[in-house]
Amino acid sequence: MTAEGRIAGAPISWGVCEVPGWGYQLQSDRVLAEMREVGLSATELGPDGFLPSQPQAMARVLDQHHLQAVGGFTPLLLHVSTHDPVPEVDRLLDAYAASGAGVLVLSAVTGLEGYDTRPQLDDDGWRVLLGNLDRLAALAASRGVRAVLHPHVGTMVENGTEVQRVLEGSSVDLCLDTGHLLIGGTDPAELARQAPERIAHVHFKDVDARLARRVQDGQLTYTEGVRDGMYRPLGAGDVDVPAIVGSLRGRGYDGWYVLEQDTILIEEPAGEGPVADVWASAEHLRGALARTG
């Protein structure tokens, strides 16, 4: 498959999110149909309830829309010694087997609701988190799936120091989320140059750096930043998309490029809605891929 054929969508670009009270949630039929209109070949699976929970039913829905399953964003409690995430992931991998999904996108959530506040981990918490990442990566690999850790604002792995601690203390690969890394203080283009062998999945989003700084400084919560338009279509923000594409292609990256523009909807959108921004991002990424081909 060509690089242009490995551009996938994510329901969050249509405002579909696992956080309670996030905003108006569009139905999957509209979201999946609009992914195909944009020419995307695959989708991440979205939060619980977006697609049928029964694996064969999930596979049928995706097949009806002519979309391949990539895998999905999986928020898990990974730093608490009394909580074992393995049984939950083992069940989830049954759905991966049925749908053909190949990437398990792990996120080390805090145990709090949403992404606006987070505690700091002590050494024991880090030991548990890193051990669980290795256990889950091995479990996924045993079932033909690649596990990646997604650094994410408001989780236990957010900033550059924490990303480096994962790289040094665990064998798990990374999801290069260009927006969350930038907001967390990591230059995604530099990370793509420094550790290309650890990048196995990409979430491409652009960011308004001015709003991101207000989130970093505590002037806005993460949710307020998203609502105010912190995430932008590719090419309309401050992420160096061409440099990242060039680094990835130069090192032979052959994974997915998932378009993500975290969005909050207040109500059912009139007119085109979120798909207009997805179109813009897809065209920008296709151009960048073509120039580095």
Structural class: alpha/beta
Task: Quickly count the helices.
Answer: 11
Architecture (CATH level 2) name: Alpha-Beta Barrel
Going across the major beta sheet, what is the strand order? 1-2-3-4-5-6-7-10
CATH homolog superfamily: Divalent-metal-dependent TIM barrel enzymes
Percent range of helical residues: 40-55%
Structure description:
There is one protein chain. The chain has an eight-stranded parallel β-barrel, surrounded by five helices. The protein has a two-stranded antiparallel sheet with strand order 8-9. The protein has one domain: Divalent-metal-dependent TIM barrel enzymes (TIM Barrel), CATH 3.20.20.150. Helix content is 41%, strand content 15%. Strand 3 (68-76), helix 3 (86-99) and strand 4 form a beta-alpha-beta unit. The longest helix has 20 residues, at 123-142. The chain starts with 6 loop residues before the first strand and ends with a helix. 48% of the residues are buried. With 293 residues, the chain is α/β, with parallel strands linked by helices.
Topology:
Layout: E1 7-9, H1 28-38, E2 42-44, H2 55-64, E3 68-76, H3 86-99, E4 103-108, H4 123-142, E5 146-149, H5 160-169, E6 173-177, H6 178-183, H7 188-194, E7 199-204, E8 206-207, H8 209-216, H9 222-227, E9 231-232, H10 241-250, E10 257-259, H11 275-291
Parallel strand pairs: 1-2, 1-10, 2-3, 3-4, 4-5, 5-6, 6-7, 7-10
Antiparallel strand pairs: 8-9
